[in-house]
Design a protein that fits this description.
The complex is a heterodimer of chains A (196) and B (309). Chain A has helices spanning 15-34, 41-70, 78-100, 105-114, 116-133, 137-143, 145-151, 155-169, 175-194. Chain A is mostly helical and 196 residues long. In chain A, helix 2 (41-70) runs antiparallel to helix 3. Chain A is globular, with a radius of gyration of 18 Å. The chains are: A mainly alpha (196), B alpha+beta (309). Chain A binds chain B through residues 32-34, 37-43, 45, 99-102, 104, 107, 110-111, 114-117, 168-175, 178, and chain B through 2-3, 5, 56, 59-60, 63-64, 68, 72-75, 125, 127, 170-172, 174-175, 245-246, 261, 263-266, 268-269, 271, 273-274, 278-283.
């Protein structure tokens, strides 16, 4: 670990990061009660939660390259960023199951097996489960540091699944999902290039 | 639980339509010019084809649109379509017709009886609305230009004007412009097939396809081509924009059919926009031909609708 080349080492505690990560969710809670979520509020929420999940996943993926290339040391916040990302993934999935599909399990199952973008999105969620489940210190000791590191590389296919899920669900080729996919590919490509 | 601090109803929705239309007539009569530009009132006669289902609010109909010429987000058209010049407007009618020509829209509308038709609208993405259109049957226009006996299809084109249509000038080409659509001639002549000029008793908002758009209520919404500048009669099935973009997803017919899934959306159910349930609005079952089977199913007798989707 190249701790020596850290030029910026923030002394900030991590709890403000958790709080900041909740702001988008709280904004949408406010919107639900007092605002206007538009003509199709369930879809608006579903898309917003999915997009925030992707943003935080990308942020988590950017932490190592930022440290290696620019010396920005945000490593101590990575767990917070990852857990917040997982929270938005869970919210996104909940909105889909509850508000979009109304817990119509046969329809949901048909979606998962018949529609590749939902299959891929669901696969991304499943890949994140063991990561979220082992995101506390005792779990690292329990699993063992090296195994824990190996396990958490599952985030790479998970983020890629999220970005591909977004590109596949839109009609035509609008810019935004392609930008997310390009960032994810760049961040994963950097890892291949640096062989980390 | 959904709390709202402001009433959802606009004055238009709580005032009986006849009453406010009357009031607008009076206003138009006294000081007509003052109303110009602000969605002019349109008189319309009621139609027996109207559903008695509750219309979706004007706000939802005008703020939630797919009109990729103005952007791919459903809020983009309301934001960007205001710049479109819709007057004067010409429609070119050509191909296999006795009276081809480039017609001024005002001339085309002369002698047409504008009807109010409250139709269900079903989007291929799995949502639906109930929309009070103003318009006239496409058949009335086609009869006037005298289709030749060999004509079998009608092709339509949307305006291309990148200077006013922001989605056409983007870095990525979203679709091949112009947007094109088509109908078989018997579908086009069906009395349900409407050329819409208005909405909720007023001229059509730009984001809804001003000044002239197609409404085919038993087909998915994307068949209802907007801001029409060309109508051609032909003996060949015309190309259609979404069919060119993704042929495995969008067929030529695109009849609303709960039995035939789109690869990305089940078509068995739909979410009615503004259904009253708010966030917890339930999906409702989708009806074959969007509930218009009695009037149109015979058009497809003997056809395999899984193949001709």
């Amino acid at each position: 670990m190249a701790i020596a080349n850290l030029r910026i080492q923030p002394r900030f505690p991590t709890w403000p990061v958790y709080l900041a990560g909740l702001i988008p969710a709280l904004f949408y809670v406010y919107q639900i009660f007092y605002g206007d979520l538009g003509a199709d509020p369930a879809k608006t929420l579903e898309h917003a939660m999915g997009e925030w999940a992707l943003r935080f996943l990308i942020l988590g993926l950017a932490i190592t390259p930022l440290r290696r290339e620019l010396g920005i040391g945000l490593l101590k916040y990575r767990r917070a960023v990852g857990l917040i990302a997982f929270l938005y993934v869970v919210l996104h999935l909940t909105v889909y199951l509850l508000l979009d599909q109304g817990l119509d399990w046969p329809a949901i199952w048909a979606d998962i097996v018949k529609r590749p973008y939902i299959t891929i999105g669901m696969a991304g969620f499943v890949l994140l489960l063991p990561l979220a489940a082992t995101s506390f210190n005792a779990a690292i000791r329990w699993v063992g540091g090296r195994n824990w590191n190996r396990l958490h590389k599952l985030v790479y296919p998970a983020v890629l699944a999220g970005a591909v899920h977004y590109v596949m669900l839109v009609k035509s080729w609008p810019l935004e999902p392609l930008v997310y996919l390009a960032i994810v590919v760049a961040l994963l490509g950097w890892r291949v290039w640096r062989r980390t | 639980m959904l709390l709202r601090h402001a009433p959802d109803l606009s004055e238009r929705e709580v005032t009986p339509r006849d009453l406010y239309l009357n009031r607008r007539h009076l206003l138009a009569g006294f000081g007509g010019m003052m109303l110009a530009g602000a969605g002019a009132a349109q008189a319309a006669v009621k139609s027996p084809f109207s559903t008695d289902e509750t219309p979706t609010s004007l706000k939802d109909i005008t703020s939630y649109n797919n009109f990729y010429e103005f952007g791919t987000d459903k809020s983009d058209p309301a934001r960007n379509a205001g710049r479109l010049t819709v007057k004067p407007w010409k429609v070119k009618i050509d191909g296999m017709v006795g009276k081809p020509g480039e017609y001024d829209l005002d001339d085309l509308l002369k002698g047409m009886t504008i009807e109010e038709r409250i139709y269900r609208m079903r989007c291929v993405e799995g949502w639906s609305m109930v929309i009070p259109w103003n318009g006239f049957p496409l058949a009335s226009l086609l009869k006037r230009v005298e289709p030749q006996s060999g004509a079998k299809f009608v092709a339509f084109e949307t305006l291309v004007r990148p200077s006013e249509m922001s989605g056409q000038s983007g870095f990525f080409k979203i679709l091949d412009w112009p947007y094109v659509e088509g109908l078989r001639l018997d579908e086009a002549m069906n009395p349900l097939t409407l050329l819409a000029t208005g909405l909720y008793g007023e001229s059509l908002p730009n984001q809804n396809g001003a000044p002239l758009r197609l409404v085919v209520p038993w087909k998915y919404g994307f068949k209802g081509i907007k801001s029409i500048v060309r109508i051609s009669l032909t003996d060949k099935q015309p190309a259609t924009s979404w069919n060119i973009q993704a042929p495995q997803e969008y067929g030529f017919y695109s009849n609303v059919n709960p039995e035939v899934d789109h690869p990305r959306w089940s078509q068995a159910t739909e979410r009615r926009i503004g259904d009253g349930g708010g966030l917890f609005a339930k999906r409702r079952p989708t009806l074959p031909f969007n509930g218009y089977a009695d009037q149109v199913a015979s058009l497809y007798a003997g056809m395999d609708l899984r193949k001709f989707y």
